[in-house]
Amino acid sequence: MRIAVTAALLLLTRVATAESDGFILGFGGEADTAGGRAVTVFGDLGVTNETWLSAMLARTTTGSGPRSLDTIYGDLAIDHWFEPVGIRFSAAYWGDDEVLDSSDLRASIYFRNDSLSISADYERRNFDLTIGANVLPRPRVIEFYADGYGAKARLDVGDATALSIGGMGYSYSRDINLQPNVDLLRIFSSSRLGLMNSLLDYRFHAGIDWSVGLRTIDLRLERWQTAIDQGYVDSIGVGFLTPVNQFSDAEMRFSYDYSDTFGKTITFSVFYYFFGT
Questions:
Q1: Closest listed residue to residue 125, CA positions, set 87, 186, 176
Q2: Of 75, 107, 126, 226, which cross-links 92 as Cys (Cβ 3.0–4.6 Å)?
Q3: pTM of the prediction?
Q4: ω before 84 within 30° of 0 (cis)?
Q5: What is the per-residue pLDDT across 242-273, written as a single tens digit (0 to 9) for each?
């Protein structure tokens, strides 16, 4: 799962509906009441009308004091639409190499027309869990992987309303809860920003968008289950997207999350998008 979900989804939506080659650049920030912070920059370049290159870079800080954690996320992707079927491939890196990090490969095949888009998604994540990085002269590295399978769909209902649904489930090559120092990984369960690209059993979302002129309001429901402690996270979020001028949009988003692990948190996000030809 990408670290700036809101930004990534809007970026993919613009790419999917683009009628000519061009570019999209954006940046944004997120903060939550658990002390998490994230900054993101991203861009898409239309090589042709049907082929797009994408890149994203983000940094996230979660927790505080000795329990704080800094993670980096980077993603490169290529998308080609054969009309009406398309394919997308991407490679990504996520994590903190002194605790847990992963190298990821993703592939999607999708169908889209004027009112419907649907995709089948696969993800392979290769993890390195480092034990004793600050204590042992030669830290121990435990390698394992996860395979993820999922699907997404979006349907335009009338001229001003769209419905979306999607999810991804993961299977791991090791039982994470049997690994040494597994309690160290619980820092990733401090909030949604910590969980975003970490160890999940599954994730699911459903949403509805309403367009009012050039502005869009969306409501999004999400559920995640963590692979670390099998805990659930339930989330409800609302976003507002509005033009700033002829060449840019701004988006604001509030999300309320509840988990047995970290309790209740609120996340606020602001993103800015610049596009042209």
A1: 176
A2: 75
A3: 0.87
A4: yes
A5: 999 989 999 999 999 998 877 899 999 999 99
